[in-house]
Structures are given as structure tokens and as C-alpha cells.
Amino acid sequence: MKIFCVTGTCGQMAALCAGFTALAWGADPALTIYNQNFAVIRQTLPLDLKAGNNTVRFSGATAHVEPDSVILRDPAGRVLVQVVEQNYRNDPVSQERLLNLYEGKTIEFSVRNPDGTDRIVTGKIIRSGYVPHYQVTNRYGMQYQGNQMAMASPSGGPGQPIIEVNGKLQFSLPGQPIFPALADDTILKPAFDWILHSAQPARFDAELSYVSGGMSWSSDYNIVAPETGDTLELMGWVTLDNQSGKQFDHARIKLMAGDVNKVQPQNQPRMMVMGGVSGGMPGAPQVEEKTFEDYHLYTLPQPTTIHDRETKQVEFLHASGIQSKRLYVYDGARFDRNYGGYQDVRQIQQYGTQSNPHVWVLREFANSDANHLGVPLPKGRVRFYRRDQDGQVEFTGENQIDHTPKDETVSVYTGNAFDITGERRQTKFQTQMQPGGFLDESFEIKLRNHKKEAATVRVVERLYRWTNWVITQESATHRQVDSKTIEYEVTLRPDEERTLTYTAHYTW
Description:
Shape: elongated
Helix content: under 10%
Largest sheet: 13 strands, mixed
Strand content: over 45%
Distance between the termini: 80 Å
Structural class: mainly beta
Low-confidence stretches: 1-19, 267-285
Mean pLDDT: 82
């Protein structure tokens, strides 16, 4: 059993915990971890309360607890406990803190002699140099921190102690300080001091919940394709990161996926939650997924211990037989970013005419039951591999995917094709600007395939000059994607070059 109270020697513990009831661990903790570097932590605390007010100390929270998020309750609803007062102490004992508590007092210092022996000198602590409340800089700003530093060191630098030794002052410690005992107001770790009111004596297992920073999770996917063909095997990992300052033994862990809004401290960037996990190998414990409010909640199959400052990976998804398509996409317009802000591009002939030579390679597959998936996929990094003729797995590209619901399509850009190139040039530009005017613009697009097999390229063209347009001439039939985008599909034989042309007529 772990006792949650300030501990030192037995005598020190008795003195420091006088008036407080120490809390002990109950059942295993439960964590719900979010992707924006925080978690909701729940643990069971046995309480033995007398009627009236009770003073209780709990020092088992993380180092990044949000004190105003604490909820203490009887999960059975039989006992009503009122938190009359809560005091959060986050100044655990350190050399600087003890110097601060012994200001105005004389203590001993151990000084190392040149011959390696030690001697004891005494000195009076005039100023400790302790800088309190360093962690609230984000809330109150750098000016506040500067004033705090000035309290400890008028020079504005790191806190400088002032020690009186033999009637003389020095701005440094004469040696290693030796404190006679822990001061009565010290704690060994951050602690909550509660005054709890109960209408009658009660002994029960209370549930303590609070929000803590310093924890996050993410997901990664490894996708392997065979030597030939596009049938994929997918393996997913969830990565848990614990930087909370606390170890959790045999914790029951859930992961929340969705855009959960959370107010961030001042001067801190706002981050959004994205992600989720699901799946599992047949015959092995599986991650369970369920809808919760407007989000997805995933439960790891078994309790796990996660140490402080530990990164842990758990396999959460393993699927095979996934049918995919490899797409080649040529989006040939390279827009000049020098045309910033609003400009009437009807009058700028060269706008959007610079040519992008690269043909993109995309992997696309359906996240459906029929395709051996059909689970909400989290935001995360996707790595693609293919087996070569020797059976070895070679890396072929990676990218990020966003949170992808069931029955949606996953499309991932993995790089540029080496043996397929594109070239795009403007062949006509004619405009008449007065009301009732028009603009005619023509393009020629050349595609070259240097591969040993045929390839189909999806050509994307953006009608960016004006809202009203019509294609008046084209060498192939286009498909309209939206109000400003059309696509062509061009199939190239090995070592073939093909030319695609079209003319857009804009009116206003």
C-alpha cells in the first residue's frame, strides 16, 4: 500500500501529517487520453470520514494536474461529500525551497578542503534566492516572472542567495547546506489539502477525477504491398506518451477521438483533437470502439502499466486483403505566389501558366467492410512498403491521413513518379473586359510515360479565371468535379507521349 502523504523519517512524517488524514490507493486507475496533450484521470480513494469537517491530504496526482478540474464523489451516490476547501500545493521540497523556509536562521554548511576533507561552517541565510511561482509565467506573463526574479535577485538574473558568514555577506553559498530537519511547511511532492464535510460518519471508496496535462496519444500505420499487385496488408500502432510526472500501474486506458474543444492557457497555441483506433488480429484481444457523444471512444483490450517519461506502442489494427488503387495525378498549374491578395486574374495573362513537371503518386483504398476494414481510422502517419523480388520490404513513401470515418475513401500522396512526366503551356489568351465581355484561354498538356507498362494519368485542371465558364473545345471528354475543377483521364502505353488540349470560354 502506498501512503499519500509527505514522507521522510517516521518522526518527520508524523509531524508533517499532523491534522491530515493520508489517502491510500484503491482500485487500478483509469485514463482517458486525448490527442491534445491532456488526459482525464480517475482513481479510487478509500475515505473514512467522521461527521462534520475532515482534513485530508492527497499527494498522488500528476505534476500537471489542473486543480480546478478536480471532482471527488461517491460513485454509488449513497454518500454526499462536500469539498469545503481545497488547497493545492505545488512547491515540493528542494534546496532552494528549504533555504527560503530557513531565511533569517543560521544553519551549517559542509565545505570541502583542498586535501579532500570536509569542515563545517555556519552561516545565516539573509536571502535564499528562491524564485516562487515560476510555473505561472504563462498565465501572468513575462513581466510577472521578471518581478519574481527581482525579488530573489535585484540584478534580474537567476536567484542569488545572500549568506552571512563570520559577520560578512557573500552572494553565494559557502558550501553544501545542511538542514537540521524538514521545515513544518514543506511537502515532498505536489499535494491537495482538502477540508471535506460529511453529514454523518462514512467509510466508502470515493472516485477522484481530474484533468492533467503531459499525456497524449497518436496512431501510425504500416502498409505493405506484395511484389506485384495492389492488395495491401495494414498494421496499425497506437503510441502512448506519458510525461505527466507520474507512473500508472495496471491502468485501464481509453482513447478519445474527435474535435473536443478545450480552452488553452494564455500564450499557449490551441490544438485540436483528431484520431482514433480500432481493429485487431483475429484471436487476439481487440481494441473496442464505440460512439460517445459526437466522438469515438476506444478502449485498449487489457490494463497496462505506463511509466513516467515512457513512450509505449500497442498494436491496435491488423487487416489484410485490402484492395487499393495506385493513381497518377497531374495537376499541371503552378501558381505564382507573388500575386498575393485579391487581384482580377482576368487581366493577368501569365497567372497560373507556370508548369509543374511532376506527376503525383497516390494510394487509394476504401475504408469499408467489403474491403476488410470498415472502422473509423484516426489521424496519423501512413508508411507504405513493397516487397521486392528478394522478398525484402522496401519503403516507398509516407504521408499523414486525417480522421477517416467508416465507408469513406483513404487517399494518400506518397511521392512523385520517376518515369512519368507532364508539361503544360498556355496556347491562347484573348479577353474583352467591358461588361458583357469574355475571356478565351487554351492549354496544351503533354504527358510522357517512360515505364515498361501502361499507365493512366488523371489530369486536373482548375478554371480559376471567372465563375461562368464553358469548355468550347477539347481533345478528350472531361469530368466536372466541382464549380471550378475538371478532370481528364489519359492512358499511356509504354514509352508513349500524348497531348491533351482544351479551350475554356469565360463570360461576365
